[in-house]
């Protein structure tokens, strides 16, 4: 949240030069405050797990947030009860005449399928087109980030030689950008994906800014220059044990998935992995909510 100080306070200019969020008294007195309306398009198979992960992060700010969950109408999920979907989810047809302050598009287990071959691709692109005029800022996660980069900016994904699976170090390109304000120069984040996007393609696109890369140089945090779209290629929302559960699930299915890198202490799957990315998860979501949603969204959309 911003610091509210007098414009005449000597420290005010220094704080602004250091990129500390300062709001002068005149602006503060004219602000109207209302709850933020956030729509979550949950494409993950285990919907209740993803709901909890995201709500933990969205609920850890002083802002009041109203949450609506969206599901695809063209694909009926099978890993969640119909009762849960009917009671807590809506379809695009039911919200298309509303406006939202923020939208989150999650990952999905379809990354090895061509975008146009995904059963709900046309529905997703309709939602992304609608969001351009009816949502202040959209946060795309993992496959959702790849879909946003491809559809909006023509950045294609490519298949990796092996699954990117584990906890990796990342670097910040510019710590003064509001989205990564408060981040350490080097921080950790989980990844679980078979595909990636080209760093060269992102850096060559005049509409995109690359804010963070992994230790291997792969793009991690990408933002459109108008801040309408923010893409996170990994899973900062994951719990400490999520990768362990994915690893166990793959092996139960007979899938030869390697042990997640840099995850289990001593690579011992019987050891509980430490949660080394929690603080940056909270920072990312609170920065997005505050700077790119709350501070930018109109009090009355009309």
From TrEMBL:
<protein>
    <recommendedName>
        <fullName>Homoserine O-acetyltransferase</fullName>
        <ecNumber>2.3.1.31</ecNumber>
    </recommendedName>
</protein>
<dbReference type="InterPro" id="IPR029062">
    <property type="entry name" value="Class_I_gatase-like"/>
</dbReference>
<comment type="pathway">
    <text>Amino-acid biosynthesis; L-methionine biosynthesis via de novo pathway; O-acetyl-L-homoserine from L-homoserine: step 1/1.</text>
</comment>
<feature type="binding site">
    <location>
        <position position="249"/>
    </location>
    <ligand>
        <name>substrate</name>
    </ligand>
</feature>
<dbReference type="GO" id="GO:0008899">
    <property type="term" value="F:homoserine O-succinyltransferase activity"/>
</dbReference>
<keyword id="KW-0028">Amino-acid biosynthesis</keyword>
<feature type="binding site">
    <location>
        <position position="192"/>
    </location>
    <ligand>
        <name>substrate</name>
    </ligand>
</feature>
<keyword id="KW-0963">Cytoplasm</keyword>
<feature type="site" description="Important for substrate specificity">
    <location>
        <position position="192"/>
    </location>
</feature>
<feature type="binding site">
    <location>
        <position position="163"/>
    </location>
    <ligand>
        <name>substrate</name>
    </ligand>
</feature>
<dbReference type="InterPro" id="IPR005697">
    <property type="entry name" value="HST_MetA"/>
</dbReference>
<comment type="function">
    <text>Transfers an acetyl group from acetyl-CoA to L-homoserine, forming acetyl-L-homoserine.</text>
</comment>
<dbReference type="InterPro" id="IPR033752">
    <property type="entry name" value="MetA_family"/>
</dbReference>
<keyword id="KW-0486">Methionine biosynthesis</keyword>
<feature type="active site">
    <location>
        <position position="237"/>
    </location>
</feature>
<feature type="site" description="Important for acyl-CoA specificity">
    <location>
        <position position="111"/>
    </location>
</feature>
<dbReference type="Pfam" id="PF04204">
    <property type="entry name" value="HTS"/>
</dbReference>
<comment type="similarity">
    <text>Belongs to the MetA family.</text>
</comment>
<keyword id="KW-0012">Acyltransferase</keyword>
<feature type="active site" description="Acyl-thioester intermediate">
    <location>
        <position position="142"/>
    </location>
</feature>
<keyword id="KW-0808">Transferase</keyword>
<feature type="active site" description="Proton acceptor">
    <location>
        <position position="235"/>
    </location>
</feature>
